[in-house]
Structure formats: structure tokens, C-alpha cells
From TrEMBL:
<keyword id="KW-0378">Hydrolase</keyword>
<dbReference type="Pfam" id="PF00481">
    <property type="entry name" value="PP2C"/>
</dbReference>
<dbReference type="InterPro" id="IPR039123">
    <property type="entry name" value="PPTC7"/>
</dbReference>
<dbReference type="InterPro" id="IPR036457">
    <property type="entry name" value="PPM-type-like_dom_sf"/>
</dbReference>
<dbReference type="GO" id="GO:0005739">
    <property type="term" value="C:mitochondrion"/>
</dbReference>
<comment type="similarity">
    <text>Belongs to the PP2C family.</text>
</comment>
<keyword id="KW-0460">Magnesium</keyword>
<feature type="domain" description="PPM-type phosphatase">
    <location>
        <begin position="73"/>
        <end position="321"/>
    </location>
</feature>
<dbReference type="InterPro" id="IPR001932">
    <property type="entry name" value="PPM-type_phosphatase-like_dom"/>
</dbReference>
<protein>
    <recommendedName>
        <fullName>Protein phosphatase</fullName>
        <ecNumber>3.1.3.16</ecNumber>
    </recommendedName>
</protein>
<keyword id="KW-0464">Manganese</keyword>
<keyword id="KW-0479">Metal-binding</keyword>
<keyword id="KW-0904">Protein phosphatase</keyword>
<dbReference type="GO" id="GO:0004722">
    <property type="term" value="F:protein serine/threonine phosphatase activity"/>
</dbReference>
<dbReference type="GO" id="GO:0046872">
    <property type="term" value="F:metal ion binding"/>
</dbReference>
Length: 322
């Protein structure tokens, strides 16, 4: 069985010592070097995406991202665009002193119709980023950013598909958020989570979602929510706060205590390493059959018996308020 060296694990974890120790004891797949290369490739790709989208410190905000496609465990991933991880997508943008970030999770069920779910989520996030860069938005209304992006997306040539969406705006030390579906965000302050967004679902594992159907298709049987259904929040921020914005690949697999334990060590100099660490932990737990995941616990509340993690695409954005 192939064993990883500390140097190799350091490359994966961004030199995060706690994660290097964890990976050295748990990430020893049977795929040998091929599997190691897949993990390193994803880490490098996430760094590359971050360097493209990363917002330099401006008015005390730093931001970065990381992610892994679900199918990474079967071999090297194919990330075709920055900020796109499998069927997930994200963006980080700014206009003057206002910082905006978002995540979207494409609905995988469209694959059975021969449709790539990532096309919808990635284009939705690109439209959001373009709106922010142009300054055509009200910082206190991130729901309108989603709404305008969705309107732009609906113009020909339009993609077919569905996606959740979560957008946060940091403006004058206040965070404004709009969340549609089961992606979401949390705010960490001085050792604890002070705020977490509410998940929106119609029933178990059926989140609210934006949808564009084929012109000849009727709405029956499809979930078609509008941006106006987004849950809106406003939270005052303080220096040292950390905002984690992520798709359900994180929330379904990583307990809040694990996230807070990692964030205890975050500072302005290690936000990329911290982001990588959380994403890697989520990926490992998603493929752990013995893990008592938040998803499995939630399923039990609905009378559904399941165990282990939930394999899924994982995308997160980390904002550090310094």
C-alpha cells in the first residue's frame, strides 16, 4: 500500500499541520500514486481558482475559496473553469469597498436528461460577479443580485437546469445575505458560531432552487422557486469575524464543532490554508462510511435510516474581516 510523505501531505493541506497529521493517518487509499495525484491536483486547482478570484485586502476584508468535485475519488478531476467544482460554482467579487461572494449548487437530477448541471450554476455565478463588477446593485439587497443574474441567465442562449444560490455582501461592516435552498453561510466570532443561515427545503433533500425548464416542458413535477423566496439576513460584523459560505457538501458532512475547532487557528496570514483544511475534512468525511454525518442525523429525523457521509461536490468561500 502506498504511503504519503509529510512533504506530499503538506502540499495537499497547504502546510496545515493539524490536517497533515489527520491525512497521514486516514487518507491512504488503495489507488496509490494516482489517488494522491488526484488530491494534489484538486488542491492546486482550488488554489489557482482562488488566485484568480481572490479579493486583496480592501477595507479589512480578505477572501478565498476552495472546493472538490464529488467524483475526485475515482481519479483526477476535470475542473474546466475557475470557481467551478463538479456541479457547484462560486464567485468572489467587489465594487469599490463592497465585497460580494456567492455559491451555487447545480441540481444533479438533470443528468438523467443529458444536461450538465454545472452549466446552470456556473453561469448563474458568473452573472452575479458581472453585476457586482459593474456596480449595478444595492449592497443591502443581495436577493436582487440573484434576481438580476437569473433574469440575465434566462436570456438566449439559456441553460436548462436548476440550482440553489447563496450570496453575501459585506458593506460598511455589515453583512447582508440572501439564501435560496440548502447552501448557506455561518459567521464565526471569538470561538463560537454567532449566526448561521436557515436551510430552505420543500421536503427532505429537496431544496428551494432556481429553475429554467425547456420551452416545451410543463412545470408539473419540477421545483421552480423564485429569487423572491430567498431568506434575507442582516448581521453587524466585527474585526476578527470569519464568514464561511458553502454548498451542502460542507454542511451535510462536517459538524459545526469541527468547523469551529479549525477556525480557532485562523488569522489574516492563513486563510487559504484554513479554507483548504475545512474542504479536505469535508471531502474525507463525505466518503467515511462510519461517520455520523449531519446528513444522516437529519435523515433520521424524517424516519430515513442511513449512515456515513454524503458524497457530494464541496465548495466553500472564506471571508476574513480583519
Amino acid at each position: 500500500m502506498f504511503s504519503y510523505t509529510t512533504r506530499q501531505l503538506g502540499r495537499i493541506a497547504g502546510q496545515s499541520a493539524p490536517l497533515v497529521k489527520e491525512l497521514s493517518s486516514s487518507l491512504r487509499p488503495t489507488g496509490g500514486k494516482a489517488q494522491l495525484c488526484a488530491v494534489i491536483a484538486a488542491s492546486c486547482l482550488s488554489r489557482e481558482a482562488s488566485s484568480s478570484a481572490q479579493v486583496k485586502p480592501c477595507n479589512s476584508v480578505q477572501a478565498t475559496c476552495c472546493g472538490f468535485p464529488k467524483e475526485l475519488i475515482n481519479g483526477p478531476s476535470c475542473v474546466l473553469d475557475h470557481g467551478v467544482f463538479g456541479e457547484d460554482a462560486c464567485f468572489i467579487s467587489k465594487f469599490k469597498s463592497t465585497h460580494v461572494a456567492g455559491v451555487a449548487d447545480g441540481v444533479g437530477g438533470w443528468r438523467k436528461y443529458g444536461i450538465d448541471p454545472s452549466e446552470f450554476s456556473s453561469r448563474l455565478m458568473r452573472h452575479c460577479a458581472d453585476i457586482v463588477k459593474a456596480g449595478q446593485f444595492d449592497p443591502s439587497r443581495p436577493d436582487l443580485i440573484i434576481a438580476q443574474a437569473f433574469t440575465n441567465l434566462s436570456e438566449a442562449p439559456r441553460p436548462i437546469g436548476s440550482s440553489t444560490a447563496c450570496v453575501v455582501v459585506v458593506h460598511q461592516n455589515v453583512l447582508y445575505s440572501a439564501n435560496l435552498g440548502d447552501s448557506g453561510f455561518l459567521i464565526y466570532r471569538q470561538g463560537k458560531i454567532i449566526h448561521k443561515s436557515k436551510e430552505q427545503t420543500h421536503y427532505f433533500n429537496a431544496p428551494f432552487q432556481l429553475t429554467i425548464l425547456p420551452e416545451s416542458c410543463e412545470n408539473e413535477g419540477f421545483i421552480t422557486d423564485g429569487p423572491e423566496s430567498s431568506d434575507m439576513q442582516k448581521v453587524e460584523l466585527e474585526s476578527g469575524d470569519v464568514v464561511i459560505l458553502a454548498t451542502d457538501g460542507l454542511w451535510d458532512n462536517v459538524p459545526e464543532k469541527v468547523i469551529t475547532d479549525v477556525l480557532k487557528h485562523v488569522d489574516a496570514n492563513n486563510i487559504q490554508q484554513t479554507c483548504n483544511t475545512i474542504a479536505l475534512i469535508a471531502r474525507r468525511l463525505s466518503h467515511d462510511d462510519q461517520h455520523k454525518s449531519p446528513f444522516a442525523l437529519k435523515a433520521g429525523e424524517y424516519g430515513i435510516s442511513t449512515s456515513g457521509g454524503k458524497p457530494d461536490d464541496i465548495t466553500l468561500v472564506l471571508l476574513y474581516i480583519n
